Structure formats: C-alpha cells, structure tokens
TrEMBL record:
Pfam families: DnaJ. Keywords: Chaperone. It comes from the Bacteria. Residues 11-30 have a biased composition (Basic and acidic residues). It comes from Pseudovibrio ascidiaceicola. This is DnaJ domain-containing protein. SUPFAM superfamilies: Chaperone J-domain. Residues 1-46 are annotated as: Disordered. PANTHER family: DNAJ HOMOLOG SUBFAMILY A MEMBER 3, MITOCHONDRIAL. Residues 148-205 form the J domain.
Length: 206
C-alpha cells in the first residue's frame, strides 16, 4: 500500500501531550486544582451512586469533613438507622397488614395458637388449639435403690418434697414402738422406712 494514499491523509492523531493528559481521566473537581481526579468520593445523602472526582490530597480533605447525616436532627438519624435494619423496606407486625390478613382468612391459612393469630399456610399447627404447651423439664432417671425406697414408703416414683415427708411421718407414727404401747415387733419395718427416707433425701427428692 502506498503511504501517499488518501486513506492515510484522512487519519488524524492527537499530539502526544494532549493524548497523555486525557488518559489520566477526569480533572480534580476541587476548586483551583488542576490535578487528575483519580479518586471518587460520594456526593452524599439522596445522591447515592453519584461521585465527585478528586486528586489524592483533596479526597483526603473531603473525607475528613464528610458527614452523611449532615442537616438531620437526632430523631431523624435514629429513625434512618432503625429503618436501615430492614433495608428501608416497609414492615408490619402480625395482624396489622389487613389486606394480607383478609387473604389469609379467605384461604384458611391462619391458625389460633395460645390466643395468638398465627400465619400457617402449610397447616403445620393444624389441631394445635388452646393454651400453648409449656416446655417440660427432662425427667431424671430413677435408680434401682431409689425405686425400692419409693416402694417402701408406698409412693409413686413421681412423688416429691412435701408428699414424701408427709408419708414418712405417717409411717413412723404407725410403726414406732412408742405409738404401739412398746410393741417392738415392727422395728424392722420402721428401720426400712427410715432408711428409705434417708436415701430419697440424700438423692434430692425431698
């Protein structure tokens, strides 16, 4: 191809200095600064996604004085921070969104549990009416010696505290020699009762 062609004559190239300056990006937007604006800085509240372009020295100065909540009173700041927890999207307490409640009422997806209206579109709580059941404490395992002690006192293994003490006193009065005119024939039974009570007391049942 001939270099004298009209195609080469129509190509224009910027001078080297001008080309170098444009490749540095936008100019610093700080008043009186002619350095390249190589650093972005947010423009502020209600202008999200918009940025100033500063040089490194002026972006540092801008960041030191930047305050996103500038112009807002304390109540407005607290309200903004509270709303930011839900991404500034509207939320409702259960039963407040009447439109959704009406729709749920139509399709029967709400269930009353323990006096509270619960959204239950998949019927997980079907038939669970009345008072909310309280979590039950795990039952302790009754050892063989403890079980025999309950049997000796004629008590169920679920007996506790005052019930055990009351039964113990009743049996002692019945089998104590002083209550039988000095008859010592039930001393063995009395000894078993006292031993059984001591086992249950030591185990923390009473």
């Amino acid at each position: 191809m001939k270099q004298a062609s009209s195609i080469f004559d129509s190509i224009r190239v910027k001078p080297g200095k001008e080309r170098t300056t444009s490749s540095k990006g936008p100019k610093c937007e700080w008043d009186g600064c002619d350095q390249p604006g190589t650093h972005k800085a947010p423009k502020g509240r209600d202008r999200e996604g918009q940025y100033f372009h500063f040089c490194v020295d002026h972006v540092k100065a801008y960041n030191k004085s930047y305050n996103y909540f500038s112009g807002m009173d304390d109540d407005s700041v607290r309200s903004y921070q509270r709303d930011s927890m839900t991404g500034h999207r509207p939320t409702w307490k259960m039963g407040v969104n009447s439109q959704a409640d009406a729709a749920n009422a139509r399709d029967g997806s709400r269930t009353n549990i323990g006096g509270e209206d619960v959204n239950d579109p998949h019927n997980f709580f079907a038939g669970a009416t009345g008072a909310r059941s309280q979590p039950q404490e795990p039952q302790r395992k009754v050892l063989a010696l403890e079980k025999r002690s309950f049997e000796t006192l004629n008590l169920r293994v679920t007996a506790r505290g005052a019930e055990i003490k009351t039964r113990y006193k009743e049996l002692v009065k019945i089998h104590h020699p002083d209550a039988n005119g000095g008859d010592r024939s039930s001393e063995d039974r009395l000894r078993e009762i006292i031993q059984a009570y001591n086992v249950l007391k030591k185990s923390g049942y009473c």
